[in-house]
Every structure is written in C-alpha cells, then in structure tokens.
Amino acid sequence: MKIYTKTGDDGTTGLQGNSRITKSHPRIIAYGTIDEANAGLGIVLSYELDKDITILLNLIQNELFVVGADLSNPNLEDKKNRVTLDMICNLEKNIDNYEKELPSLTNFILPGGNIVASQLHHVRTVIRRAETCLVLLSEQEKINNNCIKYVNRLSDLFFVLGRILNKRSGQQDIIWKV
Predict the structure, then answer these.
(1) Is residue 7 part of a domain?
(2) By three-state DSSP, how is residue 84 classified?
(3) Which of 9-23, 86-100, 113-127 has the lowest mean pLDDT?
(4) 93 CB neighbour count, 10 Å cutoff
(5) Buried b (16+ CB within 10 A) or exposed e, 156-165
(6) 5, 81, 153, 170: which could join 91 in a potential S-S bond, CB 3.0 to 4.6 Å?
(7) What is the pLDDT of residues 82-106, one digit of tens each?
(8) How many structural domains does the chain have?
(9) Is there a domain that residue 6 lies in?
C-alpha cells in the first residue's frame, strides 16, 4: 500500500464516515495540533527518563491518538475511540500523586530547567494551543466535551511533570522575577 493517495491534492481530507472537509477546517487544525504535541512527546521519550514517567508518557501518547480519533469522527452517536471520563480521572490522579513530590508553589515559575523538562514545557504550550483549537471547534459544531477536559488536564499534568523532571535532576524551579 502506498503512503500517498492523492485524494488530498484538492485541499480536502477524509473524516471517519467517509465525509471530506477542507484541510483548513478547525477540526483538522485541532487534531493536527494534538498530533504536533504527540510528536513532541516522542522527543521527550527519546531521553532517558525514570520508568514511571516513561510509562505515563507512553500511555498519554496512545491516549492522544484517541483524542485525534475522537475529533476525526463527527458522528457523536458512534462511541468507538472516544475520550472518556476515566481518562480524565487518570490524569487527575497522576497530577495529585506527582504534586505530593513537589514543594508548594509560592511564585510563578518560568518554563525551563534541564533540556527534557524544557521540552516537556514546550509540549505543554502546544497542548494549550490545542485546547484553544478545540474550544473554537466546539463553538462551531458539537464535539465530545471530554476532549476539551482531557486536554485542559493534560496541560496541568505536563506543568507538574516539568517540575518533577527538574526536581529529580536537582534543578530548581526558575522563579519569575518582576
């Protein structure tokens, strides 16, 4: 099977259910941004990480494919490959567990620190942009609202994990100085 189909040469792409929309449609921009974040996670995972972080980020990479599949299927009656409340609750559980390992925040912190934490902070910003794309799409048509909740929680988790990666490597949070 060839990787190219030539069906997108007219500026359209296929969705689940065999409908086609323009490649500039907010739905395509939303799941393209999710894909961009997932590629960034691939870079993060190319570093040597603690096993717990690797396992979690591998799970998230797979879940981001679920987000993309959910967004590529405008038929909300089809329940296959949808973002679920369980996925969101798992992110919350991980946020709570990792926050126990960190000192409380008393200042705003800057993204940065070691290279892998910095890369994860970058992925967090892509996820925040994806959330904006999802909200824009939801203002135009109905989507699974769990997608927005999941992505919102994911940016929180990546913030916490960026701090964890720095702490575990002995790097202090970088305090925002006014």
Answers:
(1) no
(2) coil
(3) 9-23
(4) 10
(5) bbbbbbbbbb
(6) 153
(7) 999 999 999 999 999 999 999 999 9
(8) 1
(9) no
